[in-house]
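Hey all, sorry for the wall of text incoming. These are the two entities for the joint prediction.
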Amino acid sequence: MRLALDIFTLVAVSAGGLLFMAGTAGLLRFPDTLTRLHALTKVDNLGLGLIVVGLLPQVDGPLAALKVVTVWLLGQFSGAIVSQLIARAARRAEHQQ
Amino acid sequence: MNVALAFDLGLAALLVAIAGWTIAARANIGAIVLFMVDGLLLAIVWVRLSAVDVALTEAAIGGGVTSMLLLGAATRLKDTESNPEPAKLTLLLTAGALCALVSAGLAAVVFFLPDPAPTLAPVAMANLAETGLGNPVAGVLFAYRALDTLLEKVVLLLALVGVWSLARDEAWGGVPGLRVYARPNTILVFLAQLLPPIGIMVGIYMFWAGASQPGGAFQGGTVLAAMWLLVLLARLQQVPAISLPWVRLLLVIGPVLFVAIGFLGFLVADAFLAYPPGYAKPLIVIAEATLTLSIGVTLGLLVAGPPETRLQQ
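and here's what came out:
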């Protein structure tokens, strides 16, 4: 059981790390602000989610698990808000040109 | 080479690279964003050094509030930035040389420390039980070196007086001209409505946990200030005029109460800022609670800047 959980953690966290790398590649390679934001936020939310899910079997107690999940929710929340704010600023800057 | 060492080396390299980039960045705003990132990375470094209290402070003050202050300054300086006079080479060289001197001095201090480095940690831990606190950092701040902590809060107030003194005469006592970085829009309002309940809880928890775990008045107060600023930036609330009695009261209540507890020490425990036996923890918690509030209001008003709008009679 322990081994299975450890393998699950290994796979999920690695997949999360891979998604973060994909998001970073998108941030560096995509042509304009909106597509870069798209790559960053979508992939980061999922990447962070996978890392959190992967870490869940490793935390001690349901309270610690709740904390980790809260971190994920707050991360998602701020990611969504900030991407909206940046996108609006970018669009406004485009209109002004 | 194990994984932890590789991580630390990568972290250190990233920190130095971004610090260099901060200096090289041409636009003020860009440099400030990099400074903010560096502050957050530095917080991770402190966590790696097991100094969680310092990490929290670095993330909240170093990365957060300082960056907000710098952003405010950069926005105010925007008009002058479009036509910058190139700095003289001698000035640049002198500044660079002086900075290098400071860095070399600090590096020398670190490298020439005796091994093991001198420490008061065992003494601090040995007497911690008498204060009733569980967090040695809180013990140092509020029991062993309480005077330093008190002066630190007073310095914060002095800084605010310094900012206020930049006001024009006719604006004195008026409303600070908080510079808006993002135009208020529905998303910002949504954030300012949803986040503060969570943030206020986190701020209060940080101060409360500070007695026995990493945390404390400064970190908690900074989180409260951030939530207040968010509400102000979203225009859900007006920045208060600095002459309002409740603003002045909130600003000084923490330090004043701390000083009062200090003088109480003369009467009941024979020394300034000494606590009577058995009452150390409750007194410290009361002082910390009011300080958290005062620090929050002071930091918020520091970011809001000098009063600009005339007080409406």
